[in-house]
Amino acid sequence: MFVPELERLNQKQIKAFQEIELKKLLHYLNTNSKFYQEHFEKHQIDLSKIECLEDLTKIPVTTKDDLQNQNFDFVCVPKHQIIDYVTTSGTLGEPVVFAMTENDLERLAYNEFISFACASGDSNDLYQLMVTMDRRFMAGLAYYSGIRKLGAGVVRVGPGNPGLQFDTIQRIKPNAIVTVPSFIVKLIEYAEKNGIDYQNLGIQKAICIGESLRNADFTLNTLGQKIKDKWDIALYSTYASTEMGTAFTECSAGKGGHHHPEMIIVEFLDDNDQAVEPDQAGEVTITTLGVEAMPLLRFKTGDICYHYTDPCVCGRTTMRLGPVIGRKKQMIKFKGTTLYPPAFYDILNGIENVENYIVEVSTNTIGTDEITIYIGTKSPSEWFEKQIKDFFRTKLRVAPNIIFESISEINKRQFPELSRKPITFIDRRV
User: What is the pLDDT of residues 74-106, one digit of tens each?
Assistant: First the structure.
């Protein structure tokens, strides 16, 4: 298993490396970034006084609103050096364009190379990509490039279409898949319905993107356990975003996504942009290293996580990122209880006969949050509605509104035209 030497050093050595890289980045931004030049001037930042990572607190954070409102002011290179454009998914607002140079694409490939290596990958593997590489999607391109850099084989099938997925597995015999974990459940259901012996087709592991597999204590959540109960393959969770251009991927220990300090500086901040205590969840805030076209400084991702600094059994000494608890803007206050959408997903994934769903939050007539869950099922009834609400009361102490719809209608709403990932949460609050 390949592990970069930096990721085996002690925390003091890693910090010293990052402080050197931070000074390079600050100089680069002050020379090339219109946004950060104005940002430093507006807040009277003396860059000569930013000597260590702790000094980052002297610089105000960058937000998603900044990116959306001043998108191209972040570009640091002339247009002729840009060779690829991608966009964010727009889950929490308008999509943001990210420009990439040749060096950025090489960095992206290296990131996924070390990430797949972290997930027990090597040149003997053959990965089946069950994600899109088009529609301005960075992730599919990143996985493909990283697998090639790993020296492994890749089969580009794309998302959906279980029949084609199994036809490819049977013909080409990959030993690994890259996909959204909820799609693995669909694959299992398709295989059982069509008499496919999926457990003996040679698939040994899955690199799972876009959805969490684990609870805060690293035990498998309902979705992860549902997969393992049916298909005993190794599951590796990975967390990333277009903005950071960096992945946090689990090793075989399954104790959080490993930080690659040569790629990114990470802080965990509270609502006042102050660092949280080690035992508290904070908003993942990143400073990218080695990005040429659109580097970011103290960018608040909106994702809330715990982090862990004890060394891992795999030999890495780097920080590990826990499962995403939720997104800050998606926090729901419901009948005196603070909730995030993943808490609903975990319950719904464990209820038999719930085929698909969409969680919708709106503002009711008294100005508080109201939750309605649209459920696709073959068995709608008053009894089933009561059963679902009882599940929620047991787990969360509160019960949402339940509306049954056809499975096909929910599926249509989950995958609108041009969507790159399934929509399971809709925020209609005013």
Answer: 999 999 999 999 988 765 557 899 999 999 999
* Residue entry with tokens 């992730």: 139
- Centre a 10 Å sphere on the Cβ of residue 54 and count the other Cβ atoms it contains: 11
Instruction: Give every strand in the sheet of 176-179, ordered side by side.
Output: 153-156, 126-129, 176-179, 205-208, 234-241, 246-249, 257-258, 320-321, 307-308
Alpha helices, H only, 96-251: 102-118, 138-150, 162-172, 181-193, 222-230
- Tokens (6 digits) for 127: 């990965």
162 φ/ψ angles, rounded to the nearest 5 degrees: -55, -35
Domain limits, the chain: 1-325, 331-428
What is the rounded distance in angstroms from the CA atom of residue 73 to the CA atom of residue 346?
Answer: 40
What's the DSSP call for residue 409? H
Whole-number Å distance between alpha carbons of 102 and 92: 29
DSSP class of residue 259 equals: P
Residues sharing a CB contact under 8 Å with residue 381, sequence separation 6 or more, in sequence order:
none
161 phi-psi bin (left φ>0, alpha ψ -120 to 50, beta other): left
What tens digit of pLDDT does each residue of 365-395 get?
A: 777 788 999 999 998 999 999 999 998 988 8
Pick the CATH number of 331-428 from 3.30.300.30, 3.20.20.70, 2.60.40.10, 2.60.40.420: 3.30.300.30
CATH number of 1-325: 3.40.50.12780
Strands 332-334 and 234-241: unpaired
Strands 282-288 and 246-249: unpaired
- Contact status, residue 300 vs residue 285, Cβ threshold 8 Å: yes
Q: What is the pTM of this model?
A: 0.83
